[in-house]
Amino acid sequence: MGISIERANKEAIERMQKSQPTLVGLDIAGNVVPGMKKKMILHAGPPITWDRMCGPLKGAVIGGLIYEGLAKNEEEAIELASSGEIEFSPWHHHNGVGPMAGVATYSMPVFIVENTTYGNKAYCTMNEGLGKVLRYGAYDDEVITRLKWMEEELYPVLRDTLKLSGPINLKNLIAQALQMGDECHNRNKAGTSLFIREIAPYLVETDYPEEVKSRVLKFINGNDHFFLNLSMPAGKATTQAAEWIEGSTIVTTMARNGTDFGIRVSGLPEEWFVGPALMVKGLLFPGFTDDDANPDIGDSTITETAGYGGFAMASAPAIVQFVGGTPKDAMNFTLKMYEITAAENDTYKIPYLNFRGTPTGIDIRKVIEKGILPQINTGIAHKKPGIGQVGAGLVNPPENIFEDALRAFVEKYVK
Amino acid sequence: MITISKINETLFGKKLKVINIGLESFAEDLRKQGVKVIEVDWRPPAKGKKELLDLLDKLEALK
After folding, report:
1. Which of A85, A182, A300, A412 is the most exposed place for a label (fewest CB within 10 A)?
2. Taking CA atoms, what residue in B is nearest to A368?
3. Which residue range forms the structural domain that includes residue A402?
4. Which CATH number does the domain housing residue A287 bear?
5. Are A137 and A388 in contact (CB under 8 A)?
6. Domain assignment present for A281
7. Which of B42, B47, B55 to mutate against chain A (most A CBs within 10 Å)?
8. Residue A10 located in a structural domain
9. Which of A101, A413, A88, A116 is nearest to A269 (CA)?
10. How many domains does chain A have?
11. Which regions in chain A score pLDDT beneath 70?
């Protein structure tokens, strides 16, 4: 029997729909992330060399090397990063995802998210908060001190809490959050609140001193984006299940490193289709101008790939105060995404659309035929390392990557 | 010059409401004359690029 795109896509969608991304624990990256090495830095987006990295990614690499103890200061870190001794590798090659610069090193704690339907696992670091943080390329003492606290206090407390609570079904939390005004990419207020509800009763039962428990709960409560680093690996665990299906035109990865935007397609295993990361149009924090902004960056587009994020903006009208536009625009973005996707999600529903399922499973054929690009909402990093976030807004992938993927697909499958 | 309002009066006898499926400039011209217009969000398949249309056609055989 020959290839049938419809049959292959049906299988890819079915696997995404049946996925059950579940938080099963936390561990140190070096212990659990496949292929992780002491002198390796994981980053967001498609593969990139040090010399082509944008400012925020370089900044995060510098911070990562200092955090890991491989460099004492900025100068040493730059020398080491450019020496060829450090291996740079995309998170997506290691079953994981990283927001913004997405930098992760050997000693960093990671969430372990298991797709309990298919057994595949995805990984992601914990969210540090907004503003001056490593994922936006900041690396001063304040940033490193926070990361160390996350490793030494936040990580063991959450790890041991999870042992008491048992696995937490993230699909369930995302579905609820979408009905509470989140879209689970740039708005994670509900998701973070729901996560606290899940863990708090067990966290207080751990043996840690009261002041430690208090610091951990206050840290999570003080960061509306804490849940992003769970919604992302949940998306990764979901799209992984649909990867590398012979004949499928469904997109399983969209990711940016601040220089390039890359996609991967189910029926074209491991191949990246890459084009320039574009500038994000949105709202800048006071004191910053368009000239300060870096092009689009981060693996958080895994949310759109999995059927939420920008694709579920109709669920999150309040997000326009963060990314720009009007609630009507948010509604229209979602409606437009039905044009380029293969299915409506059977779990993620949008109340304002009479509980219609979110648009799920980008089909490269539809993107080309309709001339409509996936709609992404995202944070904006300062283009210089060390400064951090300067705003948030809306962006699309470059058109050429879908055209190139279509060309490669035809070349592979049409004899 | 014959205006839209003149055409309305003589041809339809009531206020005209227009759905534009053509170029955006058609709608703009009508709006300038006070006519209510809504536009269909439409573009030619594959933005009219022949190479891409040919590729999509080739995949039809694999459907």
Report:
1. A85
2. B46
3. 245-413
4. 3.90.1700.10
5. yes
6. yes
7. B55
8. no
9. A413
10. 1
11. 1
Q: Cβ–Cβ of B55/A371 closer than 8 Å?
A: no
Cα-only R_g, chain A: 20
15-44 of B, contacting A, C-beta below 8 A: 43-44
Measured in angstroms, the CA of B17 and the nearest CA of chain A are apart by: 23
Out of A2, A3, A410, name the one closest to residue B58 (CB): A410
Cα distances (angstroms) measured from residue A346 to each of A19, A172, A359, A360: 11, 12, 10, 9
* pLDDT, tens only, A73-111: 999 999 999 999 999 999 999 999 999 999 999 999 999
A100, A279, A292, A391 from A287: Cα distances, Å: 21, 18, 10, 11
| Phi, psi angles (nearest 5°) of residue B23 | -65, 150
Backbone angles phi, psi at A115, to 5 degrees: -85, 100
Per the CB < 8 Å rule, is A413 touching B62?
A: yes
How far does B54 lie from chain A, in Å, by closest CA?
Answer: 10
On whether any CB of chain A is under 8 Å from the CB of B47, the answer is yes
DSSP code per residue over A353-411: GTTEEEEEEEBHHHHHHHT-PPPEEEEEEBSSTTT-EEEEEEE---THHHHHHHHHHHH
Instruction: Reply yes or no on whether the pLDDT at B2 is more than 90.
Output: no
Question: Which amino acid, one-letter code, is at B29?
Answer: D
CB pairs under 8 A between A and B: 41
Question: Radius of gyration over alpha carbons of chain B, in Å?
Answer: 19
In angstroms, the separation between the Cα of residue A367 and the nearest Cα of chain B is 8
Question: Residue A65 falls within a domain, yes or no?
Answer: no
Min Cα distance B35 → chain A (Å) is 23
- State pTM to two decimals: 0.94
Residue A84 makes CB contacts below 8 A (sequence gap 6+) with none
Indicate whether A47 belongs to any domain.
no
Residue with the two structure tokens 């009261």: A210
